[in-house]
Write a structure and sequence with these properties.
By secondary structure, this protein is an alpha+beta fold. 12% of the residues lie in helices and 30% in strands. β1 and β2 form a beta hairpin. It binds FE2/S2 (inorganic) cluster (FES). The site of FE2/S2 (inorganic) cluster has 12 residues, from loops.
Length: 100
């Protein structure tokens, strides 16, 4: 018997090409961490900008009303993955931290 199809969105982290599934309500940082991939982050509430990275493909919505990005940054594709929830498959270019 085949397992049920997994319709959770896929997050791809470039340049390493790592792919992880994002559970409902998980931010990109949380989903990556749950899969053992540590994206650079600090506050995890959308204010410090330590996690700032570029959205290469796909679309995100925000967990908070006012993520700390300028309109210009948003237009250029910058996101804060600690408060970004995927709308379908997404690809980001992000710094991955070593360690557990
Ligand atoms: S970790 Fe602080 S804004 Fe994302």
């Amino acid at each position: 018997m085949n397992p049920p199809p997994d319709d959770r969105p896929v997050l791809t982290v470039q340049p390493l090409g790592w792919c992880v599934r994002v559970a409902p309500g998980q931010s990109l940082v949380e989903a990556a961490r749950a899969a053992g991939v540590r994206l650079r982050s600090s506050c995890r509430n959308g204010t410090c900008r330590a996690c700032l990275c570029r959205l290469v493909e796909g679309e995100v919505r925000w967990r908070i009303d006012w993520p700390g990005l300028t309109a210009e940054e948003r237009a250029e594709g910058w996101i804060l993955p600690c408060v970004a929830l995927p709308v379908g498959a997404v690809t980001v270019e992000a710094v991955v931290q070593p360690g557990p």
